[in-house]
Each structure stands twice: as structure tokens, then as C-alpha cells.
Write a structure and sequence with these properties.
Blueprint (H helix, E strand, L loop, with lengths): L5 H15 L4 E4 L6 H9 L4 E4 L3 H15 L4 E4 L3 H15 L4 E7 L25 E5 L8 H9 L9 E7 L26 E4 L6 H12 L4 E5 L8 H11 L3 E3 L18 H5 L2 H6 L4 E5 L6 H10 L3 E6 L13 E4 L2 H12 L10 H18 L10 H11 L5 E4 L3 H9 L8 E3 L10 H12 L3 E6 H6 L14 E7 L15 H9 L6 H7 L3 E6 L14 E6 L2 H14 L2 H6 L1
Parallel strand pairs: 1-2, 1-3, 3-4, 4-6, 5-6, 7-12, 8-9, 8-10, 10-11, 11-12, 13-14, 13-15, 15-16, 16-18, 17-18
Helix pairs in contact: 1-2, 3-4, 6-11, 7-11, 13-14
EC number: 2.2.1.9
Enzyme class: transferase
Organism: Aerophobetes bacterium
Length: 577
């Protein structure tokens, strides 16, 4: 299916209209969803732009500019928590009668209400502090531009009075150059099957359990997926199901069950395996049994979308449907733990239901290949890589610590390379809207709540975004180690198909801001350890006070390693070893 990149045309039209209305000053907190707008600004010869990673700060920067010049500034942010961070500046502008335009990028309609990443309710978000608000949903090329202009005309100068909010839905692909559109998001909605939903108070009836097992046992190529949420079930019934059905078991690292990744049936590096597009087709599945919901891995969603499974049975205690790929065929709302135990009990009556384990063997072979390549020290550099860090971190983490992982590249690398040790009881991340804001404060709250030492692994931009929260360490008696993985800015954008030259990409997105970490540590009375590359010894000492560890990540080597692994973790390469 081919989609025209209407998002790019829409963004160019909107920026052109804003220019015609006299808006020349743009304050930008970058994100991928807002990249069509930023690319349009980069092409402009008359737009003035200021870029900063912190939306709260960029909002007040625009406020100060508006106060001083009496001009109307436009603030551009991405979807998710970015809007919430603008609220203080919006409230101040409203009560001081300052004119400003807020432009937020939004997800398309089909991603709302199903648990999609960085997706929340943004329409008229700033009410009652905006005088006017306009929501433009993700449109198609058939939408008359005149209708958009008419709607904008009522929002923009000379009609703009006070704070105005323009919320725009952008659908992938954003650009003509974007080849990475997930198949799960291009599946026409009319292909969606009628989903059989059964609500149970706590337990499913025996007939329902028998039906689920009979449906699953029809297919040789299937997987069991366990998400972050609503997945507090016993591991051993799941292992039983995996063995009897001959289906591999894939567990998100934030699920409580991820600590059982050393079991043969569990595919520890499924996210890394599925990041290779060739594996998506060679491992194509017919059936999925899903427990809980929410996954870090976008590759998993692409895999589901491309496979178009004949059976996708979802067992959850959560009533809202989290059907990201519009692929569910059966939903069972009940106690997931009781349902899995009952399914395993039923499966034991049919121990030979799967006489062909070749499909699960393929996954296990790839998983072993991934583990071997991750543990090899193939590349020499004075600096480390994110994948190396998370692969080597797991065995060196001491018992009794909690772990927090920051968003962006950190959590993505952890999903691919981190093999959660059995003794790690607590692992956290802010995945509700996956923002980089507030990660330091969240970590301090976790340590205080659990009353236990805590390690936080976060990127340099994430660290900078919440720097002021380090003040709260003085009231936290439980030692915290902040491990900053410094790859010199928002390098995640260098891996996305944004058609800008290197200079513009660095200015609008990477936005590297050198930090004097030694001064930061001294300011907040922290021990300081700068490292070139990774040494597991940093986790072997007993923490006596709050500590800041900075590891320099080689951004070029980091991306090279990822490409190397993707290229070599394939069935073809595995067979040749």
C-alpha cells in the first residue's frame, strides 16, 4: 500500500500561511512528530528560529520575546508531555494578555485510545487559558487547502487575541524519503475482523479456556507475547504453554516476568531480532497469544502488522482495547493469571499437540546468535556504545538495587540488549507518554518509595531536561547513582528519515549542549566518576552517597554496531556460522 506524504505538504502550507500572516519568530522544542513543520521552517529564508530541548523553558523564552517586542511568537512542540510542559507559560501569557501561538503536532485518529506511544488527548488542551483553538486532524491529499486556510484565517492575526492553540495531526510517512513506515499503521481499517470480546468477572469458564487452547493449537507458527502492563502472571504456566504449543515466548523487559529471560523458551533479544526487516518475513506468524499490553519494541508492532495473524487472542484485565495493530481477533477480559493457569492445565492433557518444534527452534537459534554477537568485543574504541553498556550492565547489577531507564535511545537499546537478571526485582521507565521530562525526579521518587538504593541510566538530554530536580537529593537518604549515557545530544533524530542537511539537523534536532558534569556534581554534593567506555566495576562498589557517573558514547560507533547486528542476526547468516 502506498501512502502519499501529505504531512509534508500540509506542514509547508501551514508555515507558508503563518509567514503570510506576519509570524516570523519560531521557538522550537523538537520531536519527530513535529519534524514536517521544522523541515518547512528550515527551508524558509525569513523565519527566525530558537531551539531548546525543554518545552517549559522554550515557552517562557517565547513569552519574554513577546513581552519585549510585542510581536506574536509561534511555539512548536511534538506530541505527548510536551504540551503539559508549556502550561505554566500559557497560563502566565493568558493572565498577562500576551499574544502567542502554540502549535502542537499530534498523532492521527487511529492511534488514539489504544495505548499508542506518545499519544494523548491534545485537542483544546490548554482550555480555559486559550481564547481560540483549532484542531486539524491528519488529512489526506484530497482535502481542499482552501478549507484549511479558512480555518487558519480565523485563528491567526489579525484575529489572534491572547493565546491561540493550533493542534495538527500528522500521519506517517512524513516525507517522500521516509521508507520506514510500519506496516501495522498502513493496514486499511476495513480489513479489521470482527473481534470476539468476552468479559469475565475473574475466571473464564472451562469451555472458554478449551476454546482458546483449541484455537491456538491449530497453528504451528505462533508466539506468546507478554507486555509491560497487566502481565503479573506466573511464569511456569506460560513456559508450559510455550513448550506444548511449540511457540517462542517474548517478554517486554519492563514486565515482572522479564527476570525469567534465562529460560530456553524465552527469547531475550526478540526486539533486536525483529529490527532486521528480513526477519519480519522469514519469521512470519499465523497466531499470537498476548498477555497484557504495551511494548517498548516498535519492531514487534511492525512484525504483527506485516504478519497479519489469523489468530490474535488477547488476555487482559483491562477493559479498554489496546489493539495497536488492529489485529485482535479475540479478547478475554478477566484475571490473566487464572486464565493462563487454566490454559496450561488444559494443555497438559494434549502434550503432543505440537509435533514440530522447528519454528521455535528458529527463534532460539537467532536468540543465541544475538547473545553471542552482543557479548563479543568486536569494535575497539575509547568510548562505549549503548548496546554494549546494557548488555554488560545486567550481570553486574547488585541485588537490592532498583533500576530506572530513561526514554529515547536508552530504553530502546535496553529493550534490545539488556537481559534482566533474576535478582532484579524492580525496573522502571516512564512509558505512559515516553517523555524525557522529569526522569531525575521520578528516580528520586522511586528510591524514596522503595526505600532502596537506585540506579538511573539516562541520556544527556534527559539529564539536562530535569537538572533542577537534583536539588531534591538532599532530602533522599537512599543513595542514587545517575549513569548519564552521553552521546552528545538528541542522536535519536540522526536515525530517523528527516530530510535535512547535517547543519540543519544539528541545529533543529541534535541540539548538543556540552555539560560540565564535574560542576554539576559539585553543585549538588555528588560523587563524580567520568568514564571512557564501560566498566562493570562502577556497580560493584557499595554506594555511600549520591553519585554521578558519565559514560561517553561513541555516536558513530553506536550506530555502526546497531547496523552490524541487524545485518548479522538473520537466518541466512546464522546458518552459515
Amino acid at each position: 500500500m502506498t501512502l502519499e506524504p501529505f504531512s509534508q505538504s500540509l506542514a509547508e502550507f501551514i508555515i507558508s500561511t503563518l509567514m503570510d500572516k506576519g509570524i516570523r519568530q519560531y521557538f522550537i522544542a523538537p520531536g519527530y512528530r513535529s519534524s514536517p513543520l521544522i523541515q518547512a521552517l528550515a527551508r524558509s529564508k525569513v523565519a527566525n528560529t530558537s531551539v531548546h530541548v525543554d518545552e517549559r523553558a522554550i515557552g517562557f523564552l517565547a513569552l519574554g520575546f513577546a513581552k519585549a517586542t510585542k510581536e506574536i511568537p509561534a511555539i512548536i512542540v511534538t506530541s505527548g508531555t510536551a504540551l503539559g510542559n508549556l502550561m505554566p507559560a500559557v497560563m502566565e501569557a493568558y493572565h498577562d494578555n500576551i499574544n502567542m501561538l502554540i502549535i502542537s503536532a499530534d498523532r492521527p485518529f487511529e492511534l488514539h485510545g489504544i495505548g499508542a506511544n506518545q499519544t494523548t488527548y491534545q485537542e483544546n488542551f490548554f482550555a480555559p487559558f486559550t481564547n481560540t483553538a483549532l484542531n486539524i486532524p491528519a488529512l489526506s491529499a484530497s482535502t481542499p487547502m482552501r478549507s484549511i486556510y479558512t480555518a487558519l484565517d480565523n485563528l491567526l492575526p489579525p484575529n489572534l487575541n491572547g493565546v491561540a492553540h493550533l493542534n495538527i495531526g500528522f500521519k506517517k510517512p512524513f516525507f517522500k524519503e521516509d521508507k520506514n513506515l510500519s506496516p501495522s499503521l498502513t493496514t486499511p481499517l476495513h480489513l479489521k475482523r470482527n473481534v470476539q470480546t468476552q468479559l469475565g468477572e475473574s475466571f473464564l469458564e472451562k469451555e472458554q479456556i478449551d476454546t482458546i487452547f483449541q484455537l491456538c493449537s491449530r497453528y504451528k507458527k505462533g508466539i506468546i507475547l507478554v507486555g509491560q502492563k497487566d502481565s503479573a502472571v506466573d511464569i511456569y504456566p506460560l513456559l508450559t504453554l510455550s513448550k506444548i504449543l511449540g511457540w517462542p515466548l517474548c517478554i517486554d523487559i519492563l514486565s515482572p516476568l522479564a527476570k525469567y529471560q534465562n529460560n530456553r523458551e524465552v527469547i531475550s533479544h526478540f526486539d533486536l531480532i525483529l529490527s532486521n526487516g528480513n526477519n519480519l518475513s522469514s519469521l512470519k506468524i499465523d497466531a499470537i497469544l498476548q498477555i497484557g499490553h504495551r511494548f517498548i519494541s516498535s519492531s514487534t508492532l511492525a512484525f504483527i502488522g506485516q504478519s497479519k495473524p489469523k489468530l490474535h487472542a488477547h488476555i487482559t484485565s483491562s477493559t479498554p482495547s489496546m489493539d495497536l495493530c488492529h489485529s485482535f481477533t479475540h479478547r478475554y477480559v478477566c484475571s490473566a493469571n487464572s486464565a493462563i493457569k487454566a490454559l496450561a492445565s488444559t494443555a497438559k492433557n494434549f502434550p503432543n499437540s505440537c509435533d514440530d518444534t522447528s519454528y521455535s527452534a528458529l527463534w532460539q537459534t537467532l536468540d543465541q546468535r544475538a547473545e553471542t554477537l552482543l557479548t563479543q568485543n568486536r569494535m575497539e574504541s575509547s568510548h562505549g556504545t549503548l548496546l554494549q553498556f546494557f548488555n554488560k550492565t545486567a550481570p553486574s547489577l547488585k541485588k537490592g538495587f532498583a533500576l530506572f531507564i530513561g526514554n529515547s535511545l536508552s530504553i530502546r537499546a535496553a529493550s534490545k540488549a539488556f537481559k534482566r537478571p533474576r535478582h532484579l526485582e524492580h525496573i522502571f521507565a516512564n512509558r505512559g507518554l515516553s517523555g524525557i521530562d522529569g526522569n531525575i525526579a521520578t528516580t528520586i521518587g522511586i528510591a524514596t518509595g522503595l526505600q532502596t538504593p537506585t540506579i538511573a541510566c539516562i541520556g544527556d538530554q534527559t539529564f539536562l531536561h530535569d537538572l533542577s530536580s537534583l536539588q531534591m537529593l538532599k532530602n533522599c537518604p537512599y543513595p542514587i547513582m545517575f549513569v548519564v549515557l552521553d552521546n552528545q545530544g538528541g542522536q535519536i533524530f540522526s536515525r530517523l528519515p528527516i530530510p535535512l542537511n547535517e547543519q540543519d539537523l544539528n541545529h533543529f534536532f541534535i541540539n548538543s549542549s556540552p555539560i560540565n558534569y564535574a560542576h554539576v556534581a559539585a553543585l549538588f554534593d555528588m560523587d563524580y566518576h567520568p568514564l571512557n567506555g564501560f566498566s562493570s566495576s562502577i556497580f560493584e562498589t557499595t554506594l555511600s552517597k549520591h553519585t554521578l557517573v558519565v559514560i561517553e558514547i561513541d555516536k558513530t560507533l553506536d550506530e555502526t554496531e546497531m547496523l552490524y547486528l541487524q545485518d548479522n542476526i538473520t537466518l541466512k547468516k546464522t546458518a552459515s556460522v
